[in-house]
Dissimilatory sulfite reductase subunit A (Thermodesulforhabdus norvegica), 424 residues
Amino acid sequence: MALKHQTPMLDELTKGPWPSFVADIKRVAERKPQCDDLLGLLELSYKDKEGHWKHGGIVGVFGYGGGVIGRYCDRPDLFPNVAHFHTMRVNQPASKFYTTDVLRKLCDIWEEKGSGLFNFHGSTGDIILLGTTTDQLEPVFYDLTHELGMDLGGSGSNMRTPSCCVGRARCEWSCLDTQDITYDITMRYQDELHRPMFPYKFKFKVSGCPNDCVAAIARADCSIIGTWRDNIRIDQEAVRAYVAGELVPNGGAHGFEKRPLDIQAEVIDKCPTRCMKWDGKNLKIWDEDCVRCMHCINVMPRALRPGEDVGATILVGAKAPILEGAQLSSVIIPFMKMEPPYEEFHEFVEKMWDWWMEHGKNRERLGELIQRLGLREFLKAVGVKPDPRMINTPRYNPYIFYDPADVPGGWERDPVAYRQRHQP
Protein backbone atom coordinates (compact mmCIF):
# COMPACT_ATOMS: atom_id res chain seq x y z
CA MET A 1 0.00 0.00 0.00
CA ALA A 2 1.40 3.37 -1.05
CA LEU A 3 1.84 5.90 1.75
CA LYS A 4 -0.40 8.94 1.47
CA HIS A 5 1.68 11.34 3.59
CA GLN A 6 4.89 12.96 2.40
CA THR A 7 7.48 13.17 5.18
CA PRO A 8 10.62 14.96 3.94
CA MET A 9 11.70 16.07 7.42
CA LEU A 10 11.25 12.61 8.95
CA ASP A 11 13.12 11.08 6.03
CA GLU A 12 16.26 12.83 7.24
CA LEU A 13 16.17 10.47 10.23
CA THR A 14 16.49 7.44 7.95
CA LYS A 15 19.89 8.57 6.63
CA GLY A 16 23.18 7.47 8.09
CA PRO A 17 24.42 4.18 9.56
CA TRP A 18 22.07 3.90 12.54
CA PRO A 19 18.69 2.12 12.78
CA SER A 20 15.75 4.48 12.40
CA PHE A 21 12.34 4.33 14.04
CA VAL A 22 10.99 6.19 11.00
CA ALA A 23 12.10 3.40 8.67
CA ASP A 24 10.52 0.85 11.01
CA ILE A 25 7.19 2.69 11.10
CA LYS A 26 7.20 3.08 7.30
CA ARG A 27 7.54 -0.66 6.84
CA VAL A 28 4.50 -1.24 9.06
CA ALA A 29 2.62 1.66 7.44
CA GLU A 30 2.52 -0.27 4.18
CA ARG A 31 -0.15 -2.48 5.77
CA LYS A 32 -1.42 -0.33 8.66
CA PRO A 33 -3.21 2.99 7.96
CA GLN A 34 -2.70 4.03 11.61
CA CYS A 35 1.06 4.06 11.08
CA ASP A 36 0.73 6.10 7.90
CA ASP A 37 -1.27 8.75 9.75
CA LEU A 38 1.18 8.54 12.66
CA LEU A 39 4.00 9.53 10.31
CA GLY A 40 1.92 12.37 8.91
CA LEU A 41 1.13 13.67 12.39
CA LEU A 42 4.77 13.50 13.44
CA GLU A 43 5.83 15.34 10.27
CA LEU A 44 3.33 18.08 11.13
CA SER A 45 4.80 18.30 14.64
CA TYR A 46 8.29 18.76 13.15
CA LYS A 47 6.95 21.44 10.83
CA ASP A 48 4.98 23.34 13.51
CA LYS A 49 7.59 22.71 16.23
CA GLU A 50 4.91 21.62 18.66
CA GLY A 51 3.33 18.32 19.63
CA HIS A 52 -0.09 17.42 18.30
CA TRP A 53 -1.10 14.94 21.00
CA LYS A 54 -3.58 16.15 23.57
CA HIS A 55 -4.08 14.77 27.06
CA GLY A 56 -5.93 11.48 26.93
CA GLY A 57 -7.95 11.87 30.09
CA ILE A 58 -9.10 8.70 31.82
CA VAL A 59 -9.14 5.62 29.63
CA GLY A 60 -8.42 2.04 30.61
CA VAL A 61 -9.78 -1.44 31.20
CA PHE A 62 -12.49 -2.32 33.70
CA GLY A 63 -11.24 -2.55 37.29
CA TYR A 64 -7.77 -1.16 36.56
CA GLY A 65 -6.62 2.39 37.12
CA GLY A 66 -3.29 1.95 35.34
CA GLY A 67 -1.71 0.16 32.42
CA VAL A 68 -3.25 2.25 29.63
CA ILE A 69 -1.98 5.69 28.60
CA GLY A 70 -4.61 7.63 26.71
CA ARG A 71 -3.50 9.26 23.46
CA TYR A 72 -5.68 11.44 21.24
CA CYS A 73 -4.41 13.70 18.47
CA ASP A 74 -5.66 17.28 18.11
CA ARG A 75 -6.05 17.00 14.32
CA PRO A 76 -8.39 14.07 13.75
CA ASP A 77 -9.66 15.90 10.65
CA LEU A 78 -6.29 15.38 8.96
CA PHE A 79 -5.29 12.09 10.59
CA PRO A 80 -8.47 10.12 11.41
CA ASN A 81 -6.64 6.81 11.94
CA VAL A 82 -4.80 8.20 14.97
CA ALA A 83 -7.74 10.09 16.47
CA HIS A 84 -7.30 7.41 19.17
CA PHE A 85 -3.81 5.98 19.57
CA HIS A 86 -3.68 4.59 23.10
CA THR A 87 -0.59 2.93 24.54
CA MET A 88 -0.83 -0.24 26.65
CA ARG A 89 1.88 -1.34 29.07
CA VAL A 90 2.31 -5.07 29.57
CA ASN A 91 4.08 -6.52 32.63
CA GLN A 92 7.25 -8.08 31.24
CA PRO A 93 8.55 -11.41 32.55
CA ALA A 94 11.30 -11.12 35.14
CA SER A 95 14.70 -10.65 33.47
CA LYS A 96 12.84 -10.40 30.13
CA PHE A 97 12.92 -14.09 29.25
CA TYR A 98 10.50 -15.03 26.46
CA THR A 99 9.62 -18.05 24.40
CA THR A 100 9.20 -17.57 20.67
CA ASP A 101 5.66 -18.93 20.99
CA VAL A 102 4.67 -16.14 23.39
CA LEU A 103 6.25 -13.48 21.18
CA ARG A 104 4.41 -14.76 18.11
CA LYS A 105 1.08 -14.76 19.92
CA LEU A 106 1.72 -11.28 21.26
CA CYS A 107 2.50 -10.05 17.75
CA ASP A 108 -0.66 -11.69 16.39
CA ILE A 109 -2.83 -10.00 19.03
CA TRP A 110 -1.39 -6.56 18.37
CA GLU A 111 -1.41 -6.98 14.60
CA GLU A 112 -5.14 -7.73 14.72
CA LYS A 113 -6.25 -5.21 17.35
CA GLY A 114 -3.57 -2.50 17.35
CA SER A 115 -1.02 -0.69 15.23
CA GLY A 116 1.50 -3.55 15.15
CA LEU A 117 4.13 -1.30 16.75
CA PHE A 118 6.00 -2.39 19.89
CA ASN A 119 8.70 -1.04 22.14
CA PHE A 120 10.87 -3.78 23.64
CA HIS A 121 11.59 -2.30 26.18
CA GLY A 122 10.85 1.18 27.39
CA SER A 123 12.74 2.66 30.32
CA THR A 124 9.79 1.53 32.43
CA GLY A 125 10.73 -2.08 31.68
CA ASP A 126 7.29 -2.90 30.30
CA ILE A 127 6.43 -4.25 26.89
CA ILE A 128 4.95 -1.16 25.23
CA LEU A 129 2.08 -1.71 22.79
CA LEU A 130 1.93 1.49 20.78
CA GLY A 131 -1.41 2.59 19.42
CA THR A 132 -4.94 1.24 19.50
CA THR A 133 -8.50 2.57 19.74
CA THR A 134 -10.69 2.77 22.82
CA ASP A 135 -12.99 -0.03 21.67
CA GLN A 136 -10.06 -2.45 21.36
CA LEU A 137 -8.68 -2.01 24.89
CA GLU A 138 -10.89 -4.64 26.52
CA PRO A 139 -10.41 -7.22 23.71
CA VAL A 140 -6.61 -6.81 23.87
CA PHE A 141 -6.67 -7.13 27.67
CA TYR A 142 -8.82 -10.27 27.43
CA ASP A 143 -6.42 -11.89 24.94
CA LEU A 144 -3.36 -10.98 27.01
CA THR A 145 -4.76 -12.47 30.20
CA HIS A 146 -6.57 -15.51 28.77
CA GLU A 147 -4.26 -16.59 25.94
CA LEU A 148 -0.87 -15.54 27.31
CA GLY A 149 -1.38 -15.27 31.07
CA MET A 150 0.10 -11.77 30.98
CA ASP A 151 -1.02 -8.70 32.89
CA LEU A 152 -0.90 -4.97 32.35
CA GLY A 153 1.94 -3.01 33.87
CA GLY A 154 1.81 0.13 35.93
CA SER A 155 1.10 3.71 34.87
CA GLY A 156 -0.03 6.78 36.70
CA SER A 157 0.49 7.48 40.40
CA ASN A 158 1.03 3.88 41.42
CA MET A 159 3.72 1.26 41.76
CA ARG A 160 5.28 0.81 38.35
CA THR A 161 6.15 -2.58 36.94
CA PRO A 162 9.11 -3.99 38.93
CA SER A 163 12.13 -4.91 36.82
CA CYS A 164 15.37 -6.77 37.41
CA CYS A 165 18.61 -7.89 35.82
CA VAL A 166 19.21 -11.42 34.53
CA GLY A 167 20.30 -12.50 38.01
CA ARG A 168 21.35 -16.04 38.81
CA ALA A 169 19.77 -17.31 35.61
CA ARG A 170 22.92 -16.34 33.71
CA CYS A 171 25.18 -14.16 35.85
CA GLU A 172 27.80 -15.66 38.13
CA TRP A 173 28.11 -12.46 40.19
CA SER A 174 24.48 -12.30 41.27
CA CYS A 175 24.08 -12.29 45.03
CA LEU A 176 20.26 -12.40 44.83
CA ASP A 177 17.49 -14.37 43.20
CA THR A 178 16.39 -11.26 41.35
CA GLN A 179 13.56 -13.02 39.53
CA ASP A 180 11.97 -14.37 42.70
CA ILE A 181 12.19 -10.97 44.40
CA THR A 182 10.58 -9.28 41.39
CA TYR A 183 7.82 -11.88 41.28
CA ASP A 184 7.20 -11.49 45.01
CA ILE A 185 6.88 -7.70 44.76
CA THR A 186 4.62 -7.98 41.72
CA MET A 187 2.25 -10.50 43.27
CA ARG A 188 2.14 -9.00 46.77
CA TYR A 189 1.43 -5.45 45.67
CA GLN A 190 -1.21 -5.97 42.99
CA ASP A 191 -3.46 -3.21 44.32
CA GLU A 192 -0.58 -0.74 44.37
CA LEU A 193 0.33 -1.77 40.81
CA HIS A 194 -3.12 -1.49 39.23
CA ARG A 195 -5.01 1.08 41.28
CA PRO A 196 -3.26 4.45 41.59
CA MET A 197 -3.22 5.66 45.19
CA PHE A 198 0.21 7.26 45.66
CA PRO A 199 1.28 10.92 45.44
CA TYR A 200 3.16 9.95 42.27
CA LYS A 201 4.90 7.00 40.61
CA PHE A 202 7.02 4.49 42.55
CA LYS A 203 9.61 2.19 40.98
CA PHE A 204 11.33 -0.94 42.30
CA LYS A 205 14.38 -2.22 40.45
CA VAL A 206 16.51 -5.20 41.45
CA SER A 207 20.16 -5.73 40.54
CA GLY A 208 21.85 -8.95 41.55
CA CYS A 209 25.23 -7.36 42.27
CA PRO A 210 26.76 -3.88 42.68
CA ASN A 211 27.42 -3.64 38.92
CA ASP A 212 23.73 -2.59 38.88
CA CYS A 213 22.98 -3.58 35.29
CA VAL A 214 19.43 -2.17 35.47
CA ALA A 215 20.73 1.24 36.65
CA ALA A 216 18.46 1.03 39.69
CA ILE A 217 20.55 3.47 41.73
CA ALA A 218 19.92 6.21 39.16
CA ARG A 219 16.26 5.47 38.36
CA ALA A 220 14.39 3.62 41.10
CA ASP A 221 12.53 4.99 44.12
CA CYS A 222 13.63 1.77 45.86
CA SER A 223 16.76 -0.02 44.66
CA ILE A 224 17.57 -3.56 45.77
CA ILE A 225 21.25 -4.20 45.08
CA GLY A 226 22.85 -7.56 45.72
CA THR A 227 25.92 -7.49 47.96
CA TRP A 228 27.87 -9.56 50.50
CA ARG A 229 29.08 -8.91 54.05
CA ASP A 230 31.96 -11.38 54.37
CA ASN A 231 35.27 -11.34 52.50
CA ILE A 232 35.91 -11.34 48.76
CA ARG A 233 37.02 -14.82 47.76
CA ILE A 234 40.56 -14.81 46.34
CA ASP A 235 42.29 -17.41 44.17
CA GLN A 236 45.91 -16.30 44.55
CA GLU A 237 47.13 -18.61 41.78
CA ALA A 238 44.68 -17.02 39.37
CA VAL A 239 45.83 -13.54 40.45
CA ARG A 240 49.41 -14.52 39.61
CA ALA A 241 48.20 -15.92 36.29
CA TYR A 242 46.66 -12.55 35.37
CA VAL A 243 49.89 -10.75 36.29
CA ALA A 244 51.89 -13.26 34.22
CA GLY A 245 49.65 -12.80 31.18
CA GLU A 246 48.19 -16.30 31.27
CA LEU A 247 44.58 -15.08 31.63
CA VAL A 248 42.72 -12.38 29.70
CA PRO A 249 41.63 -9.38 31.83
CA ASN A 250 37.95 -8.40 31.96
CA GLY A 251 36.93 -11.82 30.71
CA GLY A 252 37.99 -10.82 27.19
CA ALA A 253 35.32 -8.13 26.95
CA HIS A 254 35.74 -4.83 25.09
CA GLY A 255 38.65 -6.06 23.00
CA PHE A 256 40.88 -7.13 25.90
CA GLU A 257 43.52 -9.63 24.83
CA LYS A 258 45.83 -11.98 26.69
CA ARG A 259 48.66 -9.88 28.10
CA PRO A 260 50.41 -9.32 31.43
CA LEU A 261 48.09 -7.38 33.74
CA ASP A 262 49.57 -4.31 35.41
CA ILE A 263 47.76 -5.06 38.64
CA GLN A 264 49.06 -1.95 40.38
CA ALA A 265 47.87 0.51 37.72
CA GLU A 266 44.75 -1.30 36.53
CA VAL A 267 43.35 -2.65 39.80
CA ILE A 268 44.94 -1.34 42.99
CA ASP A 269 45.35 2.32 41.99
CA LYS A 270 41.73 2.37 40.77
CA CYS A 271 40.31 1.03 44.01
CA PRO A 272 38.27 3.93 45.47
CA THR A 273 39.28 3.18 49.07
CA ARG A 274 42.79 1.81 48.43
CA CYS A 275 41.84 -1.34 50.30
CA MET A 276 44.18 -3.62 48.32
CA LYS A 277 47.89 -4.31 48.19
CA TRP A 278 50.04 -6.52 45.91
CA ASP A 279 53.40 -7.72 47.24
CA GLY A 280 54.48 -9.43 44.05
CA LYS A 281 53.11 -12.83 45.04
CA ASN A 282 49.82 -12.38 46.85
CA LEU A 283 46.94 -9.92 46.81
CA LYS A 284 45.89 -8.55 50.19
CA ILE A 285 42.40 -7.04 50.64
CA TRP A 286 41.28 -5.13 53.74
CA ASP A 287 37.64 -6.14 53.37
CA GLU A 288 36.46 -3.82 56.13
CA ASP A 289 37.26 -0.90 53.79
CA CYS A 290 35.80 -2.43 50.61
CA VAL A 291 32.81 -0.49 49.22
CA ARG A 292 31.76 -3.26 46.79
CA CYS A 293 32.48 -1.28 43.62
CA MET A 294 33.13 -4.56 41.72
CA HIS A 295 36.08 -3.12 39.76
CA CYS A 296 38.65 -5.67 40.89
CA ILE A 297 36.21 -8.54 40.36
CA ASN A 298 35.34 -7.31 36.87
CA VAL A 299 39.01 -7.03 35.86
CA MET A 300 40.03 -10.41 37.33
CA PRO A 301 36.89 -12.57 37.24
CA ARG A 302 38.81 -15.85 37.42
CA ALA A 303 40.66 -14.71 40.55
CA LEU A 304 38.10 -12.82 42.63
CA ARG A 305 34.51 -13.57 43.54
CA PRO A 306 31.89 -12.00 45.83
CA GLY A 307 31.64 -13.39 49.33
CA GLU A 308 29.23 -16.16 50.31
CA ASP A 309 27.20 -14.35 53.00
CA VAL A 310 24.97 -12.55 50.51
CA GLY A 311 22.02 -10.20 50.78
CA ALA A 312 21.00 -6.75 49.56
CA THR A 313 21.70 -3.09 50.11
CA ILE A 314 18.44 -1.12 50.09
CA LEU A 315 18.57 2.40 48.65
CA VAL A 316 15.78 4.90 48.06
CA GLY A 317 15.11 8.19 46.36
CA ALA A 318 16.35 8.14 42.76
CA LYS A 319 14.50 9.85 39.95
CA ALA A 320 14.90 11.66 36.65
CA PRO A 321 14.54 15.48 36.54
CA ILE A 322 10.87 16.50 36.60
CA LEU A 323 9.96 18.95 39.37
CA GLU A 324 13.49 19.02 40.78
CA GLY A 325 16.81 17.92 39.33
CA ALA A 326 17.87 14.30 38.91
CA GLN A 327 18.70 12.44 42.12
CA LEU A 328 20.66 9.27 42.85
CA SER A 329 19.52 6.82 45.51
CA SER A 330 20.72 7.05 49.11
CA VAL A 331 21.68 4.00 51.16
CA ILE A 332 19.07 3.29 53.83
CA ILE A 333 19.77 -0.31 54.85
CA PRO A 334 23.40 -1.30 54.19
CA PHE A 335 22.65 -5.03 54.43
CA MET A 336 19.47 -7.08 54.53
CA LYS A 337 19.14 -10.83 54.03
CA MET A 338 16.77 -11.10 51.06
CA GLU A 339 15.32 -14.56 51.47
CA PRO A 340 11.71 -15.80 51.15
CA PRO A 341 9.23 -14.84 52.47
CA TYR A 342 10.93 -11.39 52.52
CA GLU A 343 9.04 -10.27 55.65
CA GLU A 344 11.69 -7.77 56.75
CA PHE A 345 11.63 -6.11 53.35
CA HIS A 346 7.83 -5.99 53.22
CA GLU A 347 7.73 -4.32 56.63
CA PHE A 348 10.18 -1.67 55.46
CA VAL A 349 8.24 -1.03 52.23
CA GLU A 350 4.91 -0.61 53.94
CA LYS A 351 6.29 1.84 56.54
CA MET A 352 7.95 3.79 53.74
CA TRP A 353 4.73 4.01 51.73
CA ASP A 354 2.65 5.02 54.78
CA TRP A 355 5.00 7.95 55.46
CA TRP A 356 5.09 8.99 51.80
CA MET A 357 1.30 8.86 51.40
CA GLU A 358 0.81 10.86 54.59
CA HIS A 359 3.30 13.63 53.84
CA GLY A 360 3.87 13.61 50.07
CA LYS A 361 2.49 16.36 47.87
CA ASN A 362 0.84 15.70 44.52
CA ARG A 363 3.46 14.56 41.96
CA GLU A 364 6.19 14.47 44.61
CA ARG A 365 8.49 11.47 44.37
CA LEU A 366 9.77 9.81 47.53
CA GLY A 367 13.28 11.23 47.04
CA GLU A 368 11.88 14.74 46.77
CA LEU A 369 9.90 14.29 49.98
CA ILE A 370 13.02 13.08 51.81
CA GLN A 371 14.87 16.10 50.45
CA ARG A 372 12.09 18.43 51.66
CA LEU A 373 11.52 16.97 55.15
CA GLY A 374 14.96 15.51 55.79
CA LEU A 375 16.45 12.04 55.94
CA ARG A 376 16.16 12.11 59.75
CA GLU A 377 12.35 12.15 59.49
CA PHE A 378 12.34 9.34 56.96
CA LEU A 379 14.59 7.12 59.10
CA LYS A 380 12.36 7.70 62.13
CA ALA A 381 9.29 6.73 60.08
CA VAL A 382 10.76 3.45 58.82
CA GLY A 383 12.44 2.57 62.12
CA VAL A 384 16.02 2.56 60.83
CA LYS A 385 18.89 4.01 62.86
CA PRO A 386 21.33 6.42 61.15
CA ASP A 387 24.45 4.68 59.93
CA PRO A 388 27.73 6.26 58.71
CA ARG A 389 27.57 4.03 55.64
CA MET A 390 24.63 6.12 54.45
CA ILE A 391 27.12 8.80 53.37
CA ASN A 392 30.65 8.79 51.93
CA THR A 393 32.75 10.50 54.57
CA PRO A 394 30.97 10.87 57.93
CA ARG A 395 33.83 12.77 59.55
CA TYR A 396 33.53 15.64 57.04
CA ASN A 397 29.82 15.54 56.24
CA PRO A 398 27.36 16.39 59.05
CA TYR A 399 24.38 15.22 57.01
CA ILE A 400 23.81 12.38 59.50
CA PHE A 401 24.81 12.61 63.15
CA TYR A 402 25.72 9.52 65.11
CA ASP A 403 27.49 8.58 68.31
CA PRO A 404 31.12 7.60 67.64
CA ALA A 405 30.85 5.08 70.47
CA ASP A 406 28.40 3.10 68.30
CA VAL A 407 30.90 2.74 65.46
CA PRO A 408 33.78 0.23 65.68
CA GLY A 409 36.96 2.25 65.97
CA GLY A 410 35.12 5.51 66.55
CA TRP A 411 36.66 8.60 64.99
CA GLU A 412 39.89 6.71 64.31
CA ARG A 413 38.26 5.35 61.14
CA ASP A 414 39.55 8.19 59.00
CA PRO A 415 39.23 7.48 55.24
CA VAL A 416 42.29 9.63 54.44
CA ALA A 417 44.41 7.76 56.97
CA TYR A 418 43.18 4.48 55.58
CA ARG A 419 44.21 5.45 52.05
CA GLN A 420 47.65 6.46 53.25
CA ARG A 421 48.04 3.25 55.22
CA HIS A 422 47.15 1.13 52.23
CA GLN A 423 49.42 2.86 49.74
CA PRO A 424 52.03 0.36 48.55
User: Anything to note?
Assistant: Residues 343-359 form the longest helix (17 residues).
